[in-house]
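Renewal narrative, Specific Aim 1. Our central claim is that a sequence can be written position by position from structural information alone. The example that follows is taken directly from our test logs and has not been curated for this report. It begins with the structure tokens describing the chain, in the order in which they were read.
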């Protein structure tokens, strides 16, 4: 719960809308008893309840378990410069900063359509990692960094928020551009985009080192909306 208090819940309106949808079904069936198929509405209500429960678990706990597991996979002992694409309020960024050596640094970039960079900076300050992290305001499709600048690049549940397919692919191309040869790019995301990311990796001659589902911790709507990891290594 500490993570939720600090970083908030993504799309908090979704569970609220789901709750009112269940209430609406109940009221509708009550006033139309005998003229509607109550069994179907009960099934729909239960389905909404299950999906809502999965969403809340993933938003409150599951995604942070995934972040902890992701940080363990990053070779932070040898990573001088790390980039977090779409860092948001800093849930993944702060975890990386905590594990960095004094000679390493992590940069978080976001356009902050949700929240503010000031709130993210406050989180970093409170966790005592502000000296190892820098925030940059910018677009993921046009990264304001030099080519071959970062040793490791990560993205946690950010790229699917770019709704345009071409722009989303451009964001991955940009990430590969600023990644050093031999560096790793790790994308954690949802919304069935793994194939798209793998295709971009192949087009850029990035070795696909790992591509897998992340289990129940990433069930945003039960098994209907799962999360996955795609990890690539840029050719030297």
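The sequence written for that structure reads:
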């Amino acid at each position: 719960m500490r993570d939720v208090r600090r970083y908030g819940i993504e799309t908090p309106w979704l569970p609220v809308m789901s709750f009112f949808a269940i209430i609406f079904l109940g009221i509708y069936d009550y006033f139309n008893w005998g003229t509607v198929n109550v069994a179907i509405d009960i099934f729909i209500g239960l389905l909404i309840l299950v999906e809502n429960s999965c969403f809340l678990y993933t938003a409150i706990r599951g995604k942070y378990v995934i972040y902890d597991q992701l940080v363990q996979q990053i070779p932070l002992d040898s990573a001088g410069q790390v980039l977090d694409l779409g860092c948001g309020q800093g849930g993944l960024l702060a975890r990386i900063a905590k594990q960095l050596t004094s000679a390493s640094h992590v940069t978080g970039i976001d356009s902050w359509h949700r929240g503010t960079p000031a709130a993210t900076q406050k989180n970093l300050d409170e966790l005592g990692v502000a000296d190892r992290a820098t925030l940059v305001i910018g677009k993921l499709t046009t990264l304001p960094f030099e080519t071959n600048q970062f040793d490791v690049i990560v993205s946690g549940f950010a790229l699917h928020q770019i709704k345009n397919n071409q722009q989303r692919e451009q964001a991955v191309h940009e990430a590969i551009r600023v990644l050093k040869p031999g560096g790793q790019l790790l994308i954690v995301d949802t919304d069935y985009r793994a194939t798209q990311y793998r295709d971009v990796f192949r087009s850029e001659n990035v070795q696909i080192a790992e591509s897998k589902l992340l289990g129940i911790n990433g069930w945003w709507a039960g098994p209907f909306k799962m999360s996955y990891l795609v990890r690539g290594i840029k050719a030297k």
